[in-house]
Every structure is written in C-alpha cells, then in structure tokens.
Specification:
The structure holds two protein chains of two kinds. Chain A is α+β, with helices and mostly antiparallel strands. In chain A, strands 2-5-1-6 form a four-stranded antiparallel beta sheet, covered by helices on one side. In chain A, strands 3-4 form a two-stranded antiparallel sheet. The longest helix of chain A is centred in the C-terminal third of the chain and has 12 residues. The termini of chain A are close together. Chain A has one domain: Alpha-Beta Plaits. Chain B has one domain: Ammonium transporter AmtB like domains (Ammonium transporter fold). Chain B contains 14 helices and no strands. Classes of the chains: A alpha+beta, B mainly alpha. The interface between A and B is medium-sized, with 9 and 20 residues.
Amino acid sequence: MKLIVAIIQPHRLDAARQALTGIGIEGMTVTEVRGYGRQKGHTEIYRGAEYQISFIPKLKLEVAVADSRLDDAIQTLGTAARTGKIGDGKIFVLDLEQALRVRTGETGDGAL
Amino acid sequence: MINSGDTAWIITATGLVLLMTLPALALFYGGLVQAKNILSVLAHCFAVACVCSVLWFLCGYSLAFSGSSAWLGDTANLLLASVTRGGVRAGTKIPESVYLMFQMTFAVITPALIIGAYVERIKFGAVLLISGLWLLLVYVPVAHWVWGGGWLATRGVMDYAGGIVVHVTAGVSALVVAAILGCRHEFPHGIRPPHAPWMVMVGASLLWVGWFGFNAGSALSAGGDAGMALLATHLSAATATLVWMAIEWIKFGKPSLVGAVTGTIAGLASITPASGFVGPEAAVLLGALSGVVCFLGVLLVKRVMQVDDALDVLGVHGVGGALGSLLLPFLTLLGGGVALSRGISEQFMVQALAVGATAVWSAVATALITKIAAATVGLRVNREDETIGLDFAAHGESGYHHTAR
C-alpha cells in the first residue's frame, strides 16, 4: 500500500476529489496548510503598506491506495490539480505499512 | 419648552453615535489587527466606553458644558446635580438629560479612536488609565473651548460635529501615545496584515450609518440643518471612498476593500466639522480632497515619520478633521452653504488658531498622561505576551478556536 500526500491549490480540491472518485478511489483526508516552494510567497498591500506573505495557503490531501492503483491515482490527481501556473503544488508517495478499518477490523487493501 | 420632534431625533442620534463605538469602531479596528489580538481590541473599546460614561456622570459633563469661563466649565453639574426631569438644555428644545447623553456618546468615541494607535502591545490597565485621564485633560477642556462657551467659541470658531473637538484631539494624541509607547516588535516589515478585512468593512459601514447621528444629530434639532448635515455627510463619504479606490487602483494595480473603507472614514472625518455648514457640492469636493490628503497622511506617518500609529488614527482622523476644519470657510461659498458672520480669511484664521491650539494642547497633555501611565501601571506588555497575543496574555481568551468540535 502507498500513502499519497499531495499539496495542491485550494481551488482544485473539488476537481481532485471528482477525478479520484471517478477512478474508484474512495477516501481522502484534507488539511488546510501553509507553505512555500518555488512560488516563494507574495505581497499584499493594505493602506499603502506592503506585507510579505511568505507562506501561502494550500491544501494537503492524504490518500491511501493499493500498490496496483498507485500510478493511476497520481496521474489522475496530478492532472486534476494542474493549472499550469507556478504554485500548483507537489505529490509525494510514501510506503504504507498497514491499514485497519475501525468499524470492521479489516486490514490491508481491504481496509482502503 | 421641549420639542418632541427634536427630542425624538436626538434620542435616536444618541443611539446611532453609541453604535459608532459599540460595535462599529471595535469591528473596524478589530479586523485590522492580527487574529491573536482581536478580543483585546474589542475589550478596549468596550471598557473605554464604560469608563468614559461614568466619568462623564461624575464630572466630565459639568467641566465641559456648565458655566461659560474661557478655559473650563464649572462644578455646578458634578454628579449631574442640576439635571432635573423637566430641565431643558439652554439654546435647544431638548431635555438636558438627552443633551448630556448625546454629548456623552461623543466623549465615549473620542478616546476610543486613540485605541488604533496602541493596539497589539499595550497593557490593559494603561488603556483604562490613559483613556480616563485623557477624557478629563484633553477632551473635556477642548469641548468646553469650542462648544461649551470657552475661548474658541468666543472667537467664533466653527466646528459642527467635532472635526477639532473629536478628530484633531484624537489624531494628534494617537501619534503621541504611539511615539512614547514605541513600535510593535515586528514594525514595520514583519507585521502581519489585517486578519479580517471583511470585519473592517462591516465596522466601517456601521460607522457610516452611525455618523448620520453624529453629524445630523449635532443640529440638536430635527429640521433643515440636520437634513443638510445628513446629505453632506453621505456624499463626502461616498466620494472619498471612490477617490481612495482610484488612487490604489492606479498606484498599486488593484483597488482593495480595506483601502476603500478607509477612504469612507476619511471622508466622514473630514466632513464632520463642516457638515451642517455646507451644501452638497462642497461635500463632494471635500470628500474628494480628503481621499487624496488622508492617503498621503497615512503614508507620511508610516513611512516618513516611522511611528507605529498602528491603525492610522492620525493619518485618517487627525488629518481629515483638520482638513475639513480649515477648508470650511471656503466651502460655505458653494451652493447650500451658510452665510459667514465675518470675512472668509478672518474665519480661516480662527479655524487655524483652533486647530493649532487644540493640536498643541492635545500633544502636551497626552505626553504627560502617557508618562503618568508609564510611571504607574506601565505601558507595554512584555515581549513574550506580545508574541502570544493580548487576547490570551491579557484576557485569558481566544478569538478563534481551531478545534474539531
């Protein structure tokens, strides 16, 4: 099993969810996060004073998938989250040792 | 003889002016600070309103609006001793109880305006002490000079609703407090932007509505003067908003909401001294000028003087109030203006004297008051508390709980 950790633009969340649901991947955890990459941040101006916003709001998606679904999942997610502009985010993949569905006690792929 | 129409309007206006402090100014300022200090700003506004109300009862009203000596009122109305159920305020057709309440709401909002200068770093005890002393040493005497039959009233100064008494006093004092208190630790480059611009807009909108009571209520009657003040107030606010937006659009590429509503307040502060004396054309002209001049005023304090008047009390209120007070004699020439009792240049000199004397007295007295507070309760919270935020450090509360439930 793999854990996909994706940092995406907040306004791409609905598209990402629909795309993953569309290929049969159910389940996602979303967290509001702040960070920077190549985009660095931006400035905002209030009453003539510039404020440096170093950490930009993003969403962190966590999706657990069976090994066989990994490539399909990250391709789908990458396409759904993409706008082509700087700041679209990144997708990381981690090994996932175990999973357990709390209600039934199922483990492994069956718990996903 | 009490006039029920006048009385009904001034009771209504009193409610509107209180609304300007609670919650309008509190929200306007609260949205501009960081999320960790939102409750402290609301608490400052609320507490200042209560402190000044009680002081107004104890001695403030008497020292401002009793007697007719040049410098200060008398003690005839300590504890409101001479106020009776049927008593009528001289020169009006409203009960003295209503008059003193209307004036009380002005005495409440003026020290509250200064809150914008010292947010995010001041001790709560210092807020209470400074506001109380300031009411008695700055607001009360200046209100007496201009409105209570004092030396500026004798010279014929024109200040319809408080360009001098409210906005010049508060604006100059804000700069002095901020300078003595010192900057926030992150000033100027590490300061976080306003945490809730929408809240700033809600506050400004309520201030706008409340200002109808402030300016049109200052007619102290329900008639043509109140109507013209209402009209002028609204037009100045709308024009100043558009001008401020235009400046930002040209200069920065985008018209911000915070900028737009700051323009609104600049237009309202500027028309305040002139509101009942001028017509609609003058109001539009003054509104347009105030958008430009107050925009520059904000930049002057922040960038050139490098004083952390955090929420621009001097740049918006002080500069706006002074601008309207000084231009007033000229603006009466346009359609709908009142006839001056003397030459324009002569009136201008009186206005300039009043603005100057008020600014000097405000600066001197506020410096003294702030030093007294520094020597007794202390001015600043420690650095750790400033970093944590005053909501939790000073009040033990949090404005926003980011928990799952």
